[in-house]
Amino acid sequence: MAFNTIVESLPAMGRFSLRCKRENTVAMSKALRFELPLSISQMVQSGNVTALKLGPDEWVLTCPMNERANIEQSLATAYVDAVHSLTEISSREVSIRISGPEAEELLSTSCPRNLAELTVGRGVRTIFDSVQVVLTREEQNLFRLDVWRSFAPHVMGLLTVAVKEFECGL
After folding, report:
1. Residues 25-73: pLDDT tens digits?
2. Residue 42 in contact with residue 122, Cβ under 8 Å?
3. How far apart, in Å, are the Cα atoms of 110 and each of 38, 47, 69, 128, 137?
4. Distance (Å, rounded) from C-alpha 79 to C-alpha 64?
């Protein structure tokens, strides 16, 4: 049986950590021109912008690098009505895409979470080996792993070894 799962680094993307109280989510959604997800682990996409709710008052916004200023400007205008914290974290993290029929099994080599329960359009903060990551399931056989830049070589090394083991049938 051939191993048909691909592990690849993704191009840089704009990333923001958004923190605000529940009562300010309406104003934040209005400023962004799309509804922020209300359930933890829910992800929504509007155009090129994605919002993932990681906690009761925490979202990660991602966008193309050239659209970062739009998010900053949109939310700056909302600050008067809705106090919030927007921190750009674009240079802190990198993304790795794992795609193919064995993607879930490959990720399970170093992730203790039951990935079968992570449905399409959801994302979670979890652990990969000993590294904190954000894992999203974008399609049934397509995952994105966001990892701090300093840990990326370690995570890619683990994934590379796991791919080789799968290819050898170990």
Report:
1. 999 999 999 999 999 999 999 999 999 999 999 999 999 999 999 999 9
2. yes
3. 29, 32, 36, 5, 16
4. 23
